[in-house]
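User: I'll paste a sequence; please echo it back and then give the predicted structure.

Assistant: Echoing your sequence first, then the prediction.
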Amino acid sequence: MRETAWQELSRKWPVLLGAFLGLAGGVSSIAYYSQGLFVGPLTQTFGWSREQMSLVTLAGGMLLAILSPFVGTLVDRFGVVRPLLVSFCAMIVGYLVLSRIGGSFALFLLVQLLLIGVGSATGPVSFTRIVSENFVAARGFALGATLAGGGVMAIIAPPIIASLIAQNSWREGYLAVAALVLVCSTLSLALLVPRLRSSVSVPTATKAEESTDAHYRTPDLSSPFLWRLAFTFLLVALGVGGFTFHMVPMLTDAGMDLSSAAQIQSLIGVALLVGRLGAGALMDRIFAPYIAASAVLLAALGLAIIALFGVAAAAPGALLIGLALGAEGDVIGYLTARYFGLAVYGRIYGILYGIFAFGLGLSPLVISRLQAMANSYDTALWFSCAILLIAAVSLLTLPSFPEKAK
């Protein structure tokens, strides 16, 4: 007899909490949402350009895109414990090195890429795999709650780091990031390691539904359906990802102080948290692509508001951008499990998330180039609105899920 959602959550809450904390301290959360805070201080200190700083995000996104399928295959085959241990240690060491970096941009880029590359197992590929293995009835909510770790970190980290940068320097900011990763990873592994040490293969409970819950028995990498999903998530990432990076520079360009801009930036984290929890719960009840399309349309509305009314409308715009990012994070994992099943979950999720991460990395550079060409962010805002509308149409026309065995 299958457990109810409440029974699953009551029995397996330590796994959910461990995944939540781990993702909060991982490469896709604190590493991503803290980057924009260092743009101004580092360009002022070393004379680097914003395009150079955007290149770091692009290169990191490309590296995640390349490595995510391999990380997914690795955790499918060998489990997640050892990759997580290595990756968290790499992140901590990387941020300690960044706190002592000199004026060489090449060295700064190299350290960032090593941090992201070796730390890539701390991203959603590992933690959504853990959740999808352990939850069935409450899978949507559990995925949302896990990915909400990124939203919580996006709320907590910017004000703390911005305050340390303002009162001391950007070097203390990187030390704060290292400390946050250390705390989150220690608590996460303490909860997960005893429960996952022997977990390598797909559990019996989920194997029972595999043949009916999968759109494809094996990952067909030439499938138009797979690449349609990938292209859709790429458009979403291009549309909203760059403004998590450029929100603070856009606001400070308009005369807002760094502390106030960081508070607006933190609104993205608040909305991301709401979006992930809300979308996750709704996906257990409503066709998931409809939830995703609604969130994408809200993000387009938020960007249009900023384009029409300026930075005075940055707060509602940031909230709507965060909602979209939160919902899309849930949808990638949920659609992977529902269309492709769990036996190849890590590999397929790695492909889709990797392309999404590539889009998140490319978006700041595209927006930076458009801003430089137009000497304002208006063109970039309208460009993002347009591609989000295309993504919404694609999501609204996805096929229904395969029928589960009753």
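Residues 198-217 have pLDDT under 50 and may be disordered. Residues 220-398 form a domain with the Growth Hormone; Chain: A; fold (CATH 1.20.1250.20).
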